[in-house]
Amino acid sequence: MPVFQRFMTSILPGPALRALGAVLLLALGFPVLAATPVTLQLKWTHNFQFAGYYAALEKGYYRDAGLEVRIEEARPGLDVVGQVVSGRADFGVGNSALLLDRHAGRPVVVLATIFQHSPAVYIARRQSAAQSVHDLAGQRVMVEPAMAELTAYLRREGIADDRLTVVEHSFNTRDLIDGKVDAMSAYLSYEPYFLDQAGVDYQIFTPRSVGIDFYGDNLFTSESLLKARPDLARAFRRASLRGWEYAMAHPGEIATLIHERYAPAVSRDFQLFAARQMQSLIRADMVEIGYMNKGRWQHIAETYEGIGMLPANFDFAGFLYAPDGSADLEGLRAYLGLTLALTALVSAGALYVYRMNRRLKRSVAEAGRAAAELQAGEEKYRLLTETMLDVVWTADAETLRFCYVSPSVERLLGYTPAELIGTPLLGALDPAIADEVKTVIRKGVDTFLSLSPGTPVFRTDEFRLPSKHGDGVWVEVLSTCCRNPASGVLELHGVARDISERRASQARIAHMAQHDMLTELPNRAVVSDRLSQALAAARRNGHRVGLLYIDLDRFKPVNDAYGHAVGDQLLRQAAIRMRGCVRESDTVARFGGDEFVVLLPLIDTLADAATVAEKIRAALAAPFHLASLRVEVSSSIGVALYPDHGADEAALTLHADAAMYAAKHCGRDRVTVFSLAA
Q: 130-144, 447-461, 533-547: which has the minimum mean pLDDT?
């Protein structure tokens, strides 16, 4: 902050007094220093997507940093990167395509990441129940400039770039609502609100469905500005992130501000919708806003490389801003440790050694006895850590590198202690969660430092750790943060316990609670839950839900003639055939005996449900070959639709069952649709 500003702030704390002080200083002949003008170029129209920048401006954070900021919204066809690189704007908001711009010779530098998960998706008008992203081929699609991750999504799905009829993005959802286009690139925090308000049935296609999970809405500048004005970049970044922290902590206030001053044509309700959607994308509860990791950017670059959008070995030199000389140290503190009992043991042992050393200094006469006691204590501790199954470890809280790992780690992971000591603690984790764990560590250490000395802070987590000779091991980590009583150094103490068998047992129990053990099909409880969800979605979106009730004809004679073992084989094969007749989103379940149910959560017409039912009937009518036997059965299938034949779960199930019995009474081996007149 300039000297003049610091002086004014110290003597004139309020806005009115500052203004008065400025007038007095002018009268006395002092020059008033002007704030540095700065332009921020957005990538979209004014809305909560850029809430942090409005908050920084309106709360005075930019002014306090000596900046006079103008925020420019985008317009159709605008090249945001071009605005910044050319100097027409000082800073901009861009997505992961900044990597491609950097490779193309446009010297951009990413200052901070706002969205940990990009909200970019394709949204299309729903045209059929089985619609997929491949249906975008040949359709009119509005695509926002620089949405490279969506291009990557299509390429990974095997859809060539030229298969879309690309239309310039109008930034107006109305074009999709009115049918001027079939689909559009969009944000989860924006377009769904307007489509819901208009009652348009739509389908969202997200890159995350194929593993493309990129950063979103990155604050960036040009390399030339950063070199010429590093203090300006630092001040703007700091004030902006301060604004983002305020905006996400006070969404109601900022939503009102945006509605009243920046986007009066859009309701405050929409701004609050965007704020809610952004919570899970920004993850301010887990990651410090603005945090980014080179390893994550490397993964993004490798994804682009894999589909031919970047060459191999992208050069990151100069691309990522390091505020204090190291991007990896920003927001990094440590927190992981030991259980209460082991922490007490380690601390007591360390304190014991410390006291013994003091006694040695005080009295040479006691040296022999103290040494013996010290040796006995160390032997007990060594015996404990070397024979227990759990792995005890300590790490330096500053460097996050292992200082000690007990020998039991070789039984758990295959690594010797020598192979791990001195290596990064986070290197033992899946890279996909390392960033989040790093942030949790930092918050844990900050919490520990904020408490009274000696107050314990404990945490329990579950992780899958890579092993030396296998796929990995699930462990439960009990941890704490404490100071070494002898050195005063902040340390992380932890114990890791193998819980692979426990997790496998839990998975088996959960599976058994929800599935029929003979056919492996979902059971009645699962169907009831899914039917309830399907009906809620149908009421909201106005589509139909189909329910098929299926009973095998002449199954009992098979059981009686050949025994239950053959009957069980028949039921298992029947289940496989029925699953082969439906979509992945549909549910085939066994209700008991030879009764089955098929849930079609999203269909357009009665004919769609009847077609599926007839396909199942034909599949079950084909002969079954069971060992040396050739067995023939058929099926009676009842069909009921929401809302045509029932408005709730009970009515729909009852009417599908009634239609099935009507099929039996009419001669079996047929499909019958429920009729109120029957």
A: 447-461
User: Where do the domains of the chain lie, and which CATH numbers do they carry?
Assistant: 1-32 (no CATH), 34-115+215-329 (3.40.190.10), 120-210 (3.40.190.10), 340-500 (3.30.450.20), 515-673 (3.30.70.270)
Give pLDDT tens digits for 551-597.
Answer: 999 999 998 888 989 999 999 999 999 999 999 999 999 988 899 99
Residues 656, 674 contacting (CB under 8 angstroms):
yes
User: pLDDT, tens digit, for every residue of 495-522?
Assistant: 888 888 888 888 888 888 888 889 999 9
pTM for the model stands at 0.47
- CB-based contact 195:134 (threshold 8 Å): no
Q: CA-based angle 476:480:481, to the nearest 5?
A: 145
Pairing of strands 36-41, 91-94: parallel
pLDDT of 378 strictly over 60: no
The Cα 348–Cα 484 span in angstroms is: 10
d(C-alpha 369, C-alpha 622), whole Å: 88
Q: Please, which residues have CB within 8 angstroms of residue 170's CB and are 6 or more apart in sequence?
A: 76, 142
Query: Which backbone phi and psi does 183 adopt, to 5 degrees?
Result: -160, 170
H/E segment holding residue 262: none
**Residue tagged 């593993």 (tokens):** 211
Q: Which residue has the tokens 């329990």?
A: 460
| Beta-bridge mates of residue 165 | 140
What's the CA dihedral at 169, 71, 92, 438 to 10 degrees? -110
Q: How far apart are CA 273 and CA 420, in angstroms?
A: 47
Long-range contact pairs involving 380-389 (C-beta distance under 8 Å, separation at least 24): 381/345, 381/349, 384/345, 389/497, 389/498
Distance of CA 344 to the CA centre of its chain: 36
Contact (CB, 8 A) for 600 and 608: yes
Q: Is pLDDT larger for residue 369 or for residue 149?
A: 149
| Cβ–Cβ < 8 Å for 145, 77 | yes
